[in-house]
Design a protein that fits this description.
The complex is a heteropentamer, with 1 copy of chain A, 1 copy of chain B, 1 copy of chain C and 2 copies of chain D. Chain B is α/β, with parallel strands linked by helices. Chain B has 12 helices and 9 strands. Chain B starts with a strand and ends with a helix. Chain D folds into 2 domains: about 220 residues, Rossmann fold (3-Layer(aba) Sandwich), CATH 3.40.50; about 110 residues, Nucleic acid-binding proteins (OB fold (Dihydrolipoamide Acetyltransferase, E2P), Beta Barrel). Classes of the chains: A mainly alpha, B alpha/beta, C mainly alpha, D alpha+beta. Chains in contact: A-B, A-C, A-D, A-E, B-C, C-D, C-E, D-E. The structure holds adenosine-5'-triphosphate (2 copies), leucine and magnesium ion (2 copies). Chain A: It comes from Bradyrhizobium valentinum.
Chain lengths: ~270, ~325, ~290, ~350, ~350
């Protein structure tokens, strides 16, 4: 197998540094002993991490975000995967229009979506419910699930599916045992982006969240109403730390490349 | 069945204060559950408009500017039985809302940077024109009350008035605009710009500056010699079918001297009741006593009439 | 070649899209239709929203060059962002794909990193790096004597594009990476044996085959950048408004929802046209890859 | 009994007709091969039988029932694809086990049958290997095992042995034949290898440009080709230009210096077809010179330039000295081994 | 002159050694074939020569220069992959033109050469077709045209004709041989087809389990196999158990009722190897019964059960009546056609 040349590795290094720089800075600030945003120079302090403990609503909001993100991206996949397969494989009348409709949540500013959903849910008596928030998130993250699944499904070798059919696999089994594993990299990437998008959304969620269903970004946004202080950075650093821990555990017990590259032979 | 009262108000430390100091007592004495819906003034107002005719919120706490809009749009009900010793400035027409805290709009500056550079602390609105602050000033935009005050003050100092703010626009456009780093309404962003050293001078309110200074950051507030304008944090009960009488009760609780002192301590709000006695250590910045008396209170009747037009003009002339 | 017989194709795509279509019609189309309706309503400072049918807002947008300027900036920024993410993200995905298993997943996650922390904290990072005289990078560059005055970043269009490209990068990298999974490495070897250099292989052999992925990434990035609110608001500030911040302003500060709705609907329509148009163009250009 | 029936089947891709007017009846347990030049429509026909492509015209019936009405999964087919179509995300064993799992074969039996199938194709020990890590021939054998293990009632094989060496190929052929005999599996084999087709099939279908040229037993098609195409395509054939000399009595068929008594009913210029393995080197016959001599293991192939044009000759490698390149020889054959064609057809 | 040299090359995949101690010197313009069972490491070796895989040990030199130091693109190779590896997003013509474009061949010349190349492989008229819309054999031919059109100095062919019918295959073989002769192209061919290897190659490399078993001309490897493996792998061989009877004078080699004078230097139980095409039916010889008779076009294959075990016999299809299945026959061969192995090796 061909490996990356020195030029590629230099490019890669610069790329990764540029991607990480702002984040590293934020994480560093989390360790400041000062009461305001500053890079720790002489000493590091955990005071801003300790302070998280005195805001139980942050912890609660984290769980809400986690649950909402996981649930909405999962539900979105349930709808998006079949739709993506249809769009990738068939040319039928209205295909382009449907594809455009499915992508439209990407194209509307989230403020507008937030208010549109708030009006709509209020009108149908679903205002302020978690279901409403969930449905809105499903719609908003749907395009990610769709587009990435689509990227994996277009141009897939169909004879493999035919082989499965000839061996007696039909419908659901065919999908679960053959089609899904083949498009798995796309599905997982789609899920990851959908999850993160839901986890990160602020502008729409501000309108739909009610007390008890406030997400972490909403909580942080409200927290910095009067003042920005390093708590924002320590919360961000904690989220990163939690994510990394989860991923390392996943890698240990399952293998990340299996998740990300699908189960097919890793080494080629 | 226990009833729920929805109170919409600012997030952050304000929310914390209300949750800790006001809500428990209120719930106990009224046998009701209070849900606090956090959001800044504009978010709350947008929610009111979106849920028009089907309001969830019972009490709204917003800045005075948005409050006038809310009243105009008919969202606010009448408050019965307001205390008598309310400052006149805290009253709204027909008692459709009431001020719960008094804030002065003036200048905030970074004391450490000023000291390092050997600059004298600002004293006047005219200091905003000083070219040495090139790209280091932050002013909230016009749809924020602080921005509106800046425009009004500059107009008044130069012979204008609420009815005629042309001079204000002209000065901002020609003399101040080049010094302005950003027209930033968000308090979080404002503090960030100071903390990262990008801004050193700003137009802001006493409440905000007080809590910023409380974090240990070297900033101070200046009442400009031409005068500072009054800004009110205000509350109103929301009109809705079978509105709860507890809405007014909740607002009145906010006006109790005990609550007023808490707001002063935690949030730098000047009390709106003449009768509240302020302990000296709490009143360093807040508009109290004599400072409160000297404040300039804009004429909102005229402003409201013109505001839409000014906003358009500001967007097209200043922020471009 | 279709796996299911041609005659049965008639119903299958509809059956597969039906659940998603129902979801969208149920909870997106109606609110969107309400928003479109809203854009034809009247609004006044005192009266609020009046449910009448007038063209006032649309006329205003059409005639006032202020809006044209905002939209022009919006699409300029979105296009630049898309180009940058494609130019850096696609090669990076390619490099990642050639790494060995463990490094591959590690760096993939590193690249997802920016999305894990909220916009607020992320842009804070940019401000600390580039903001004013105290920005780390600026300080470093100035002390090295490479630049005389700090590089302007905050409140500039450049800053907006860079910050947007930074957040959008994972979308591009992941999309391209997904498409790369399907590539047969022997095909690259074939090109190599025919005398193609690395660059030619990428341009002539790899790129056309991963076009579905690049297209997906570009569509996501372009749409998201054109409708992004937080990053332009925080980095660009109010003086560099884009369509989304404009709509935000009308919705939240002025409360003139009909005007805001008109701006949003226009943005949506423009984006749909651009995306569907370029999608069709690229699918036609690379028809063989998309079947 | 007609088990599988193709009735005037045709397939078009866009404007191009790729298979046309294809009618064939296959009996239960029969072994039929499709032979034909590359691109003549063999794979397309097979795919239609498998139900992966719909015929543009005509009908395909399995046990009298229209195929299109049956779910592909329900047809009980075993298919080997020309491109293998292995599941890339499954090991060899998992690939083979798949069809059994679909049939809910108990776990233990399944394991045993998979083991046996892999052993049969010579891949014992490769159970845990992923397709991408196997050689071309190994992949092909996994595909074969996968199709055979389910003991299908119909086997459709598209060049299933094309990447195997002669030895293994023969083993597999024997395996195939045995399975087909023991289980009564109806088998359709697409192959480019004539020996394979001839040694395995009950009947051979020779195709050309989407149409059937001839259907018959191996010996029929080889010895009594229905057309010039078939005779050229199956094995090698020498076509020599000759004339029937009417002036002589009895009439003589002559080519160069060589002449034999002519059969009746034909006159003028004719084409003489003769298989290369029927030509011997002798003292009489047409004069020729050996141009190249190619060693082919069990036989030698001679390309000769004769007075009647190029002629190829095959001689069994019986260990006797063979004529060298450049040597002048005489080529002879028995009159009954040649066939005559006049201007148009077969005589 | 050694043009291409492999010096004790080995390749490991993980713990598994797939090619080991492979040394070979190929002269300029030589035609060498790799023959060996499926999975023996042919593709792997070829890929190392092409530079797509790095040897785990050993060196590969092209014109004396280490291959790993040369850019793959600079090696002037033409490669045909076992899996074709066509560019799926390019038409047949674009696929073939690619290598020419890389060499900056002028547009008009390029077009002409592409046309000629496609015509040569019988694909004139398929210029605009995309690979996915072609049959297996057509794709393989595009791959071949793509490799040949650049007139490479080294051609590496991995089963380039496996999906072609016999006729086309022969045309292509002739093409290949001609190109190789005219341009002096050094060619390495991986094939599972012995006839192909024998008729094309100057030398054959017989591989087994990653190691070289024998290198030699086609006739050498067939007639004088270096090991039992080679003799079994190339063509068919009958191995009969026999004994050398020391009690008789002169010593005799006997199997069943058959016996001949024994050669010197060996004693006890031996294995007699004899090629099936060297066995004739006669009046004397060992007694056997014909079990199956398989028609193979230009020859017949008989599987017999003899008194010394199973024996296969190949007879040219000379048109004479052949023994039928079940018939009792006697099998005979010339003493010089058999080879003897004692307990261990080749005698
Ligand atoms: N990537 C890989 N990882 C591990 N083993 C491999 C890999 N590629 C090939 N092998 C193994 O190496 C051996 C040699 O493979 P190679 O492809 O060279 O065989 P081959 O001689 O070309 O066989 P065939 O005639 O079937 O194509 C095989 O046993 C195969 O399973
Ligand atoms: N999807 C398609 N679209 C258009 N033409 C096609 C398509 N698939 C095959 N063809 C054409 O149909 C003809 C028959 O193809 P088919 O695959 O049936 O040939 P085949 O007999 O299997 O040949 P081979 O022995 O080379 O595999 C070929 O000329 C091929 O180019
Ligand atoms: C992709 C998102 C993180 C973009 C974000 N909502 C913004 O406006 O910047
Ligand atoms: Mg085929
Ligand atoms: Mg191979």
């Amino acid at each position: 197998m061909r490996t990356n040349g020195p030029l590629a590795l230099i490019f890669h290094t610069i790329f990764v540094v540029a991607m990480l720089a702002p984040i590293v800075v934020v994480c560093l600030v989390a360790f400041t002993p000062e009461g305001y945003l500053s890079l720790p120079t002489t000493s590091f302090s955990l005071r801003w991490f300790r302070k998280i403990a005195s805001y139980p609503e942050f912890v609660h909001a984290f769980w809400v975000s986690l649950g909402l993100g996981a649930l909405s991206s999962l539900v979105a996949l349930l709808f998006a995967v079949p739709a993506a397969l249809a769009i990738a494989r068939y040319s039928f009348r209205g295909r382009d229009a449907i594809a455009a409709l499915f992508l439209s949540p990407l194209m509307i500013p989230h403020v507008v979506l937030g208010i549109a959903f708030l009006r709509f849910f209020t009108a149908i008596g679903m205002g302020g419910s978690f279901t409403g928030l969930l449905v809105a998130h499903v719609v908003v993250v749907f395009p990610f699930a769709l587009r990435l699944t689509l990227a994996a499904a277009t141009g897939m070798d169909r004879s493999v599916e035919m082989a499965a059919v000839s061996l007696g696999a039909g419908g659901w089994t065919l999908f679960r045992r053959v089609t899904l594993p083949l498009i798995l990299p796309g599905v997982i990437s789609g899920w990851a982006l959908a999850f993160i998008q839901s986890f990160d959304d602020l502008t729409m969620t501000v309108f739909l969240a009610t007390p008890g269903t406030e997400t972490l970004p909403v909580r942080m946004f409200l927290y910095i109403q009067d003042n920005i202080d390093p708590l924002v950075t320590s919360v961000s650093a904690s989220v990163i730390a939690i994510t990394m821990t989860a991923l390392i555990l996943l890698d240990r017990f399952y293998g990340l490349d299996r998740v990300l590259a699908g189960k097919s032979d890793p080494g080629r | 069945q226990q009833k729920t009262l929805y109170v919409a108000g600012y997030g952050g430390s304000f929310e914390k204060t209300i949750r800790d100091e006001v809500i428990p007592g209120f719930e106990q004495s009224n046998g009701v559950k209070v849900e606090y819906v956090a959001g800044n003034s504009t978010d709350t107002l947008a929610k009111l408009q979106a849920q028009k005719g089907n309001q969830q919120i019972d009490v709204a706490i917003v800045d005075d500017g948005p409050m006038y809009q809310a009243i105009q749009l008919g969202f606010c009900g009448k408050i019965e039985g307001l205390p008598a010793d309310l400052y006149e400035a805290a009253r709204f027409k027909d008692d459709r809302a009431v001020g719960i805290g008094l804030v002065a709009t003036g200048l905030m500056y970074n004391t450490k940077v000023f000291a390092e550079k050997g600059w004298a602390p600002p004293t006047s609105w005219n200091d905003l024109k000083d070219p040495k602050y090139q790209k280091q000033i932050v002013i909230p935009p016009i749809n924020n009350t602080y921005g509106l005050h800046t425009l009004l003050m500059l107009a008044r100092m130069n012979g204008g008035s609420e009815a005629n703010v042309d001079t204000g626009f002209k000065i901002i456009k020609t003399d101040i605009n080049s010094n302005v780093l950003a027209y930033e309404p968000s308090p979080g962003k404002m503090t960030e710009l100071f903390q990262s050293g990008q801004a050193v001078l700003a137009v802001w309110g006493t409440g905000r500056v007080q809590s910023f200074a409380n974090t240990g950051f070297p900033v101070d507030f200046v009442y400009p010699k031409e005068g500072a304008a009054t800004l009110l944090t205000s509350a109103c009960p929301i009109t809705k079918p079978n509105a709860s009488p507890l809405a007014s009760a909740f607002i009145k609780m906010l006006l109790e001297p005990k609550t007023q002192l808490v707001l002063l301590k935690d949030y730098g709000y000047g009390p709106v009741l003449k009768s509240v006695v302020v302990p000296p250590e709490l009143g360093k910045m807040a508009p109290i006593g004599e400072r409160a008396a000297k404040l300039y209170t804009p004429d909102w009747v005229i402003i409201n009439d013109k505001r839409e037009e000014w906003t358009k003009r500001w967007n097209r002339e200043v922020e471009r | 070649m279709a796996a299911t017989a041609d005659t049965r194709d008639g119903r299958a795509p509809w059956a597969l899209t039906a659940p998603a279509l129902m979801l969208f019609v149920g909870v997106l189309v109606i609110p969107l239709a309400m928003t479109v309706m809203l854009s034809f309503h009247d609004w006044g400072q005192y009266k609020g929203i009046e449910p009448v049918f007038i063209l006032k807002n649309w006329r205003e947008i059409a005639t006032d060059p202020y809006y044209a300027e905002m939209f022009w900036r919006t699409f300029r920024i979105a296009l630049l962002t898309t180009l940058i993410t494609a130019m850096f993200g696609a090669p990076e995905a390619y490099i990642l794909n050639r790494m060995s298993g463990r490094w591959k997943s590690f760096f993939l996650l590193v690249i997802l990193g920016p999305l894990l922390i909220s916009v607020v904290a992320r842009t804070l990072g940019w401000a600390l790096l580039f903001g004013g005289n105290n920005g780390l990078v600026n300080k470093l560059l100035m002390s090295l004597g490479l630049i005389g005055s700090p590089l302007p970043f905050m409140f500039t269009e450049t800053g907006m594009v860079i910050a947007l490209a930074h957040v959008m990068m994972p979308f591009m990298v992941l999309s391209v990476w997904t498409a790369l999974q399907r590539l047969d490495p022997q095909i690259e070897n074939a090109a190599l044996s025919l005398g193609a250099g690395s660059f030619t292989i990428i341009r002539r052999i790899v790129l056309p085959q991963i076009m579905p992925g690049v297209l997906s990434g570009a569509i996501i990035v372009f749409s998201l950048s054109a409708s992004a609110f937080a990053t332009p608001a925080i980095i660009g500030g109010r003086r560099l408004k884009v369509a989304a911040t404009l709509a935000y302003d009308e919705f939240l500060n002025t409360l003139d929802w009909p005007l805001g709705a008109a701006v949003a609907v226009l943005l949506l329509v423009a984006l749909v046209l651009i995306v569907v148009g370029s999608n069709a163009l690229i699918e036609r250009r690379y028809a063989e890859v998309f079947r | 009994m007609s088990f599988l029936e193709l009735d005037r089947v045709a397939k078009q891709f866009g404007p191009q007709t790729v298979v046309d007017d294809f009618s064939l009846t296959v009996g239960k347990g029969e072994f039929v091969s499709f032979l034909g030049p590359s691109g003549c429509g063999k794979t397309t026909t097979l795919q239609m039988i498998a139900g992966f492509l719909d015929p543009s015209r005509g009908a395909i019936r399995l046990e009298g029932r229209d195929l299109t009405a049956m779910q592909p999964a329900k047809r009980g087919l075993g298919v080997v694809f020309q491109s293998y179509a292995l599941f890339p995300h499954m090991t060899a064993a998992e690939n083979v086990a798949f069809g059994l799992e679909m049939r809910r074969v108990p776990r233990a039996e399944c394991r045993e049958r998979v083991r046996a199938a892999l052993e049969m194709v010579g891949l014992a020990g490769y159970e845990e290997r992923y397709p991408r890590r196997m050689s071309g021939g190994q992949q092909q054998r996994v595909a074969l095992a996968r199709a055979l293990v389910i003991r299908p009632s119909v086997l459709l094989l598209d060049e299933p042995l094309s990447n195997l060496d002669a030895k293994l190929r023969e083993d597999m052929q024997i395996e195939l034949r045995q399975i087909q005999r023991n289980l009564g599996t109806t088998t359709i084999l697409v192959t480019h290898d004539q020996n394979e087709a001839m040694s395995l099939s009950d009947r051979i279908v020779v195709m050309n440009q989407g149409c059937i040229e001839q259907i018959g037993t191996p010996q029929e098609t080889y010895e009594r080709p229905a057309s010039a195409f078939v005779s050229q395509f199956l094995g090698k054939t020498n076509d020599l230009a000759a004339t029937i000399d009417l002036s002589a009595t009895p009439r003589r068929l002559a080519a160069g210096s060589w002449s034999v008594p002519a059969p009746a009913g034909i006159a003028g210029p004719v084409t003489v077809s003769i298989r290369p393995e029927r030509i011997g080197f002798g003292d009489a016959g047409i004069a020729a010179k050996i141009v190249t001599r190619i060693f082919q293991g069990n036989h030698w192939l001679f390309q000769c330039e004769s007075e009647c044009g190029p002629v190829i000759v095959i001689r069994q490698n019986d260990g006797q000295p063979q004529p060298a390149e450049g040597e002048a020889v005489r080529l002879a054959w028995r009159p009954e081994d040649m066939s005559l064609r006049g201007a148009g057809g077969v005589a």
